[in-house]
Amino acid sequence: MKKNTLMVALSVIGIAAIQTNTLKAQIVVSQADMPVAGNKFVVVNDSNDASLSPSPMGPSVTWNYSGIGTTTVDTIKCVLPGSTIYGAFFPAANIALTYSLPGGLQDAFANSSAGAFSVNGVVEDFNSNTVILQFKPVAEKLFAFPMNYLSAWRSLYTYKFQVPITNPTYDSMRIKSFVFDTSTVDSWGNCTTPFGTYGVLRVMEVQRTLDSLSFQNTTTKIWKDSGRFVQADTMYQYLANGLGFPLLTMHMRGGKVMVASWLKGNGTGINEVTDNAGSLVYPNPAQTELNIKLASCEDGYVNIIDITGRQISSTKFSDKLANINTSHFANGMYFYQVFDKSSNLIDRGKFSVVK
Questions:
Q1: Could you report the per-residue pLDDT of 286-318, keeping only the tens digit for each?
Q2: Which of 267, 295, 319 corresponds to the end of one domain?
Q3: Dihedral of CA 83/89/91/96: which sign?
Q4: Is residue 179 part of a domain?
Q5: CB within 10 Å: which end of the chain, N or C, has fewer?
Q6: What is the pLDDT of residues 146-157, one digit of tens each?
Q7: Exposed/middle/buried for 82, CB within 10 Å: 0-12, 13-18, 19+?
Q8: What is the distance between the alpha carbons of residues 89 and 81, in angstroms, rounded to a whole number?
Q9: Which CA distances in Å does 323 have to 88, 225, 281, 290, 314?
Q10: Which domain holds residue 295?
Q11: Which ranges constitute the DSSP H helices of the chain?
């Protein structure tokens, strides 16, 4: 009996040694380690934690972030671009990542290939406006494959957007951005988060952005240049094999970690925005009104977005029924987003108006 126990113990020690050696070996990251349609991820954000630091760097490093905190939790769903509201704006994308947290990034559109994982653009909230950022003339190359220690790549792209503002003199604001990214795999080793310990490659991305800001005069409609502003940010991403999403990401500005995001869960069984929350939308096409009957959500609000991505109305609802006045809508296609009273996105879809 003792002999058998000893053999079992030695076997366990041997397995542990093999696992440790595997973790310490440098990995190679490829397209197989990127997200694909059908993936779902739960990501936890820790904001302004003064104790966080991305150091040290180099080969065979050990990073321990097991005590990282929790500020907000986001659920990310990976889908085909054509199933989203804004997919038509990003024809080169073959995957879209949709985010559940309101008031920030809504969707990211990317192209995943054997040579790179590149972001074609994003849709996000800016001052309560939905803006579509199409990266031109090329996409941001987030990762280049095959990726190993000291791999490096660059990206150069621009984007612009315009939003209305409330001001006695100006009615609109326009921002044009010129972005230059340099990325390097500066380290490899073992990284520990509450999700576990993994062998990782660490990518350091330095992003330099030149923004030009202008305002449109309410009366004359003439645009006034308000200056140019330079900003530098650094992002560290810790990538492991087989996760489909970075194990850990740190966003830095001025030498300080502003937000750290760590992977809490991945797979197809994660609770997230329901693909079809049982909403009954009628009449569709609509003429003067649209009704949305919810299966489970008692109270919340519905945002209506036109084909250009501009939010044109927001309507509160109760008792599982939303009634939207469409009498002032022009004929065409529209999109709806249903949020509960805690601003969690619970359903989305499209409808048309024909009069």
A1: 889 999 887 778 889 998 888 776 788 999 998
A2: 267
A3: negative
A4: yes
A5: N
A6: 999 999 999 999
A7: exposed
A8: 9
A9: 28, 42, 10, 6, 11
A10: 280-353
A11: 2-24
